[in-house]
Amino acid sequence: MTARSPQDAGDLSRAAPAQDRRRILALDYGRKRIGLALSDELRLTAQPLTNLVRKNRADDIRRLREICRAHGVARIIVGHPVHMTGEAGAMAEEAARFATRLKRELGIEVELLDERLTSWEAEQTVAGTRSSRGRAPVDDVAAAILLREYLERHSPMRGAIAEKV
Question: What is the β-pairing status of strands 33-39 and 46-53?
Fold first, then answer.
């Protein structure tokens, strides 16, 4: 075994997080807020993380970069708010541009995913659990629903179960 200099050890510690990046971050993109949800490292569960209040594009990207680094994010899923007919409106185009910018600026794989009815489902999920007087945004819950759907579609167990049936 060869001896490593302290400088080499520092290089390894900086490289290690990239190897451990397994989590997926889901974004419920909005003009005022971005709801965030995070998978576990095994990509089995989706949990609401937080709601980012939008400031400006540069600051939003900076905060997302920090979150990705802190949590070891390997992939980002951005909700694509298409109309019920499947047509992309102005908001869907804006979310797509934001996803493209995230990929370019963060160097992380980014994927758009149809988010139809996630906000409605999020509202139904938290109805009665959050105070109606101080009603909190549900964007993080909508992001968790989006992420849950993604994880279910991409689960290695899904193929194994289908083969046994």
Answer: antiparallel
Number of domains in the chain: 1
97-149 pLDDT, tens per residue? 999 999 999 999 999 988 755 655 556 566 555 554 445 678 888 899 899 98
User: 138 is in which domain, residue-wise?
Assistant: 21-164
Say whether pLDDT at 14 is over 60: no
CA-based nearest residue to 115, from 99, 135, 100, 129 = 99
Three-state SS at 159: helix
Asked if 79 and 143 count as a contact pair (C-beta separation under 8 A), the reply is yes
Q: What 8-state DSSP symbol labels residue 54?
A: P
Mean pLDDT of the chain: 77
Integer Cα distance of 152 and 154 in angstroms: 6
The CATH number that applies at residue 65 is 3.30.420.140
Beta bridge partners of 7: none
